[in-house]
Amino acid sequence: MNSKPVRVRMAPSPTGRFHLGSARTALYNYLFARKTGGKFILRIEDTDQKRYVPGAEEEIINSLEWLGIMPDEGPTQGGDYGPYRQTERRAIYGKYAGELVEKGAAYPCFCTAERLAKVREEQLARKENPRYDGTCRLLEPEEARRRTEAGEKFVIRIKMPKEGSTTGVDLIRGPITIENNALDDFILLKSDGLPTYHMAAMIDDHLMGISHVIRGSEWLSTFPLHVNIIRAFGWEEPTWVHLSVFLKPSGKGKMSKREAAEAIKDGHSIFIGDLKNLGYTPEGVLNWIVLMGWGVAEDDVMTLDEMVQRFNIDNLTPSPAAINFQKLDHFNGTHIRLLTNEDLSARIKPYFTGAGLKVPMDTLLKVTPLIRERLVTLDDCLTFARFFFEEKVEPNPEDLIAKGLDARQSAEIARKAYEILASLPEITHAVAEPPMRAYVESSGYNAGQVFGILRVAVTGQKVSPPLFESMEVIGRAKVLERLQEAVKILMAGK
RNA sequence: GCCCCCAUCGUCUAGUGGACUAGGACGCAGCCCUUUCAAGGCUACGACCGGGGUUCGAAUCCCCGUGGGGGCACCA
Fold first, then answer.
1. Is the CB of residue A422 inside 7 Å of nucleic acid strand B?
2. What is the rounded distance in angstroms from the CA atom of residue A344 to the CA atom of residue A358?
């Protein structure tokens, strides 16, 4: 490990949606910064103008905000090392690339894209590895300068050593060595004047004082190239950590576009921006992803603060992890149950109002305790509790008929239940249950039959929160009204 | 094809040479609780990829296989 003050960064490119993998990278960076008292930085790597997606940067920031892992420095909050968007730093890169050319560590290349494509094709046909053939590497510096000054289009390539090998050290994987002749003369500066990732990231990491680079394992194969670039500049290397990749649930390969769409149909998603709408909580999502690539011996239910306390960068696992949505559901439900009544009520309220229901907070506060342990996702509140806020319920006539009984008998039970409840001054759990129990005893019907009919009549559904508690919240008038309606339905269907 | 990485229950993982009859979590199955559905409690099932070394001793270290994954752009 190096001795620099801890500064870590997340450097996404605004070319697509913000997904699980990006979120986990951000999380680990965040946890490490908090754990060590360091800074967490967001840098937008927008040097590819062709793939730029409008709104992508906004989604990144919204997602981080929703998860509660906002950076200390970044394009929105600023900082002493800005700007934090690479396109706003473009002047910097040309200067550094020029420095490398001066040193003889890089060279201008005038080959056209067409020629490069042709070379690649020929190499492939000969079953050779596709790579730059080195034509412009042989150019005399004077001639190269004459051509660039004449206005000819060019890129700048790194002059990779032909011999030897390069070794970089990854914190969780150990030394990684690659033969230099296996590395290409990668392009550092594109003909549009913007840098490629390879050079831009190294320059910015250096300029921003990044101490630890925690990034995805897709960078593992170009890792030695990055080490070479840093050495060419004569800078100090950061500590490197390459995270594992996420595999699709089957464990066979990365999530494809098609599979991402499938997941959404199932009520799941790999995109953070969707998870919110699907009723997931930041707490549940965070707990879920933090454990894919990092493990704890026991007590795996954690809040963000607890994660910070327990996080240890040395314990990150290098092996790929298959996504398991069932586990997300589990953690989501668990964290929902951990919320206070007020907090949970406030979080589910929008789902009711979104469905066009009027939801008074005082009533909701009484409903929430009845459904909280039944919720896997926040939007489940609608399936369990919408009848509390509806004027009328529309029970399925068949559901009103208890198991083993016919319509006439069920109607009799409903009418009797009405009589009993109507005779009471109030319908609370404490007052209503004893006489109903007594009726079950004396009637010869069983509890499941009697309460089943009552449940469907009052809630309109076969599955509901506890019956008597529910009736107490619904209120005497509505309970009796719904019971009467049930008797009517039963009589009509007889 | 070439290069790199990885390898413990179905899945996520604990394990850093002896405390391993390999621990936890999800899922699955059963039981308890119970007016439904959950939640909760208990129990069961379930793994060190294979082969060689090193060592008194290996899930743990080394090598070779095998399997899986990633990368080979004027994309990141």
1. no
2. 17
Low-confidence spans in chain A with pLDDT less than 70: 1, 493-494
DSSP annotation of A304 reads: H
Both tokens assigned to A479: 């309970």
Q: Determine whether the distance from the CB of A293 to the nearest atom of strand B is below 7 Å.
A: yes
Q: Is the CB of A383 under 7 A from strand B?
A: no
**Which one of the listed residues A50, A127, A252, A257 is annotated catalytic?**
A257
User: Given this model, what pLDDT does residue A1 score?
Assistant: 54
- Is residue A257 annotated as a catalytic residue, yes or no? yes
Q: Is the CB of A404 under 7 A from strand B?
A: no
Residue A406: what pLDDT?
87
Question: CA–C1' span, A59 to B38, in Å?
Answer: 35
Q: pLDDT value at position A324?
A: 96
Helices A447-459 and A429-443 sit at what angle, rounded to 10 degrees?
Answer: 130
Query: What are the Cα distances from residue A285, in Å, to A64, A172, A278, A280, A312?
Result: 12, 24, 12, 7, 20
pLDDT of residue A227: 96
Straight-line distance from CA A185 to C1' B73, in Å?
12
Tell me whether strands A321-322 and A106-109 are parallel, antiparallel or unpaired: unpaired
A337 touches strand B (CB under 7 A): yes
Q: Cβ of A169: how many Cβ atoms within 10 Å?
A: 14
Per-residue model confidence (pLDDT) at position A99: 96
Strand order in the sheet with A174-179: A39-42, A7-10, A212-216, A239-243, A165-170, A174-179
Q: What is the pTM of this model?
A: 0.95
Nucleic chain B: which protein residues 430-469 of A have CB below 7 A from it? 433, 447-448, 451-452, 455, 462-468
Residues 6+ apart with CB under 8 A from A347: A281, A339, A378
**Amino acid A294 CA to nucleotide B24 C1' distance, rounded Å:** 14
Q: Which nucleotide is nearest to A433 (CA to C1')?
A: B35
CB contact set of A338 (below 8 Å; sequence gap of 6+): A283, A301
Tokens encoding A47: 């040097």
Strand A187-189: give its sheet, edge to edge: A106-109, A155-158, A187-189
Which residue in A73, A93, A92 sits closest to A82, CA to CA?
A: A73
